[in-house]
Specification:
12 helices; AAA+_ATPase; ATP hydrolysis activity; Alpha-Beta Plaits; alpha/beta; Rossmann fold
Length: about 350
């Protein structure tokens, strides 16, 4: 659906984007991440035809943005970070205006406007002046104008920026539903949004793509080791001995050695009988551990069978992995202080 081939945007004495190269298949929802000024908005503007690349080619459903820009743009729906709304118009009048701009046939306009209103939950607000809409409904209207001409590719720049939690959940759900019929490129700074919506992640840093992967494969791509956190009931030393004897285990660390607070020394004396009972029936203890695989393979079954065979029940087992936040910081912390910018008329407004 989208092919971005070795695309660069170069400015004199300013940072642009360099040899951006990626593609998107039909039905994908791709999260586009990067720190401020990394080149996300510049890239999206080139994809949508608002900027011309210095080098490289952009193809939308087989149409070159350079050679057939009109055909390529018809395939794209674009929602900038600030929706392109006219506050003095009503919702319905605005969508009819957009339908004319998008060359929607006159006989289809009423149907298309009605479908967009229904899909984006704008029923009952058709006659409302846009300036009186809440920010959440303005975002819905921005999405409505982006899908009105039934594009195959949706480019969404920070669609949940500035919304309250309820509105964010609603817009995320709408984007997820739109992904059933559209290919979506979603730029956002809200990293949990990527996990909630997207089936692929692109990270850009200093004008270059530094990661292109599916969320479930991020740890493997980053060379992450296989680690498991455990809480096991039983004597500490025996558990450590059992785990360290496994060939598949490289390292075992205690992660929580805190002991229960000492009892109040001024409490009533304990009888000899009670002391004897405590000696005969010691309180069960548990130990929390971090276990690292020797060769990055899944060791959870091996841990389960060894501990079960030794009679030490596992109270909790969880695989530990790098979060998207960890990976993002790891790939972008070399970002220098923002000292250069693009020319005023083409400023990259990543925010």
């Amino acid at each position: 659906m989208l092919e971005v081939k070795q695309v660069s945007k170069l400015y004199e004495n300013a940072r642009g984007v360099h040899n951006i190269d990626f593609s998107m298949q039909r039905g994908e929802i791709v999260g586009f991440l990067g720190p401020n000024g990394a080149g996300k908005t510049t890239t999206m503007r080139m994809i949508t035809g608002y900027l011309n690349p210095t080098h490289g080619q952009i193809w939308v459903d087989g149409h070159s943005m350079a050679d057939n820009p009109k055909k390529a743009r018809r395939k794209i729906g674009y929602l900038p970070e600030t929706p392109p709304l006219y506050p003095e118009m009503t919702v319905q009048a605005y969508l009819r205006f957009i339908a004319n701009l998008r060359d929607v046939p006159a006989r289809e306009q009423k149907l298309r406007v009605g479908e967009a209103i229904d899909k984006l939950g704008l029923q009952g607000r058709e006659k409302q002046i846009i300036r009186s809409l809440s920010k959440g409904y303005k975002q819905r209207l921005g999405l409505a104008q982006a899908i009105l001409h039934q594009p195959d590719l949706l480019i969404l720049d920070e669609p949940t920026s500035g919304l309250d939690p309820k509105q964010i959940i609603e817009i995320r759900q709408l984007i997820h539903e739109l992904g059933e019929n559209h290919t979506v490129l979603l730029s956002t700074h809200i990293l949990p949004e990527i996990n909630a919506i997207c089936n692929r992640v692109l990270i850009i840093n200093q004008g270059r793509v530094v990661l292109d992967e599916r969320p479930e494969h991020l740890g493997r791509t980053m060379g992450e080791t296989f680690e498991v956190s455990l809480e096991v009931k039983g004597p500490r030393e025996r558990i450590l001995t059992e785990l360290r004897s496994l060939e598949a285990v490289a390292e075992v660390k205690e992660v929580d050695t805190a002991q229960p607070a000492a009892s109040d020394q001024t409490s009533e004396p304990v009888s000899e009988a009670a002391e004897l009972a405590v000696d005969q029936e010691p309180a069960a203890e548990s130990v929390k551990l971090l276990v690292t695989s020797a060769d990055r393979t899944d060791i959870r079954e091996a841990l389960f069978f060894r501990l079960a065979g030794a009679g030490y029940p596992i109270l909790e087992m969880k695989r530990e992995s790098l979060s998207l936040e960890d990976i993002f910081l790891k790939l972008t912390t070399d970002e220098p202080a923002a000292s250069d910018s693009v020319p005023n008329e083409e400023v990259d407004t990543d925010a």
